[in-house]
Amino acid sequence: MVEQQGRGSLKVLKSLKNSLLLTSYFLFLIFIIACGRRGDPVTPLTYTVGVVKDLSAVIQDNAVYLTWGMPKTNGFSKKTLKGFVIFRAEVPAKTTIEECKCLFRALDFIVIRNNKKFFEYLDKNTAKGLTYAYKIIVMDKNSIMGKDSNVVLVNIPEFK
Predict the structure, then answer these.
(1) Confidence (pTM)
(2) Over the chain, what is the mean pLDDT?
(3) Which of 55, 82, 85, 113 has the fewest other C-beta atoms within 10 Å?
(4) DSSP assigned state of 129
(5) What integer is the mean pLDDT of 116-123?
(6) Three-state SS at 33
(7) C-alpha distances out from residue 58 to 67, 73, 94, 132, Å
(8) What are the φ and ψ backbone dihedral angles of 72, each rounded to 5 degrees?
(9) Which residues, in sequence order, are CB contacts of 129 under 8 Å at separation 6+?
């Protein structure tokens, strides 16, 4: 009977040893898989959305007429562009744009269609005697916005 207990406990020990070994292998495998790729992290390939550099403005009948061209490609396809966000800020009198801590607000969104190369926008909601600053930011189809365009200042005369 003692001999049978010895064999029984030997089976239990072997079973326990096999279970521990199997558990160890399982944990080791999970550790290897969970750690991911070894090595230094690599930043994903990125592109910069184009920047409008030729924004210009003229006054027409107390409205501001903006024109600009398609930005040059910098590692991106023009097909990835969605459109342009037009921003405007009121600039206090006798203040340069560099001095101004102007709050630019989005005016409108212009969708790019038909491989156009030149774009225009007419801002009719202007007030006489005020100075406005305009800028444009390009947006891609993932709603990623580029950098600010050049800023143009327009002074709407009081009397016309």
Answers:
(1) 0.68
(2) 82
(3) 113
(4) T
(5) 93
(6) helix
(7) 9, 27, 20, 12
(8) -70, 150
(9) 156, 157, 158
Structure-block tokens of residue 4? 């049978």
* Band of pLDDT at residue 2, cut at 50, 70 and 90: very low
pLDDT in the model for residue 37? 63
**First CA to last CA distance, the chain:** 118
State the Cα–Cα distance between residues 63 and 93, nearest whole angstrom.
19
Rounded Cα–Cα distance for residues 73 and 52 (Å): 11
Summarize pLDDT for 55-83 with one digit per residue, the tens: 999 998 889 999 999 987 666 677 788 99
> The tokens of 140 are what?
């891609």
Model pLDDT for residues 137-146, shown as the tens digit of each residue = 999 888 888 8
Cβ-count burial 114-153 (b if 16+ within 10 Å, e if not)? eeeeebebebeebeeeebbbbbbbbbbeeeeebeebebbe
**In b/e form, how buried is each residue of 17-56, taking b as 16+ CB within 10 angstroms?**
eeeeeeeeeeeeeeeeeeeeeeeeeeeeeeeebbbbeebe
List, as one string, the DSSP characters of 86-119. EEEEEE-TT--TTT-----EEEEEEE--TT-SEE
